[in-house]
What does this fold into?
Amino acid sequence: MSAFLEGLGLIFKKFASLINVKSLVTIALTVAFIVQTCRGALDKEMMTIYSMVMTFYFMNQAGKQAGGGDDTQ
It folds into this structure.
């Protein structure tokens, strides 16, 4: 039972770390991208915005893992 509670606590900690402005914007933009793709209404501007945000997000994450940068922006 103790291992279960520790695992549950870990899940909650991971979920709490996801809740910040950059993550919420990224998730919302991904949902909008998926909806527009399914409707067949994906335009060039949306594709450009989505690719820019995803590039920024993943490059920022790679920088954090490499030991550089901070999360103040």
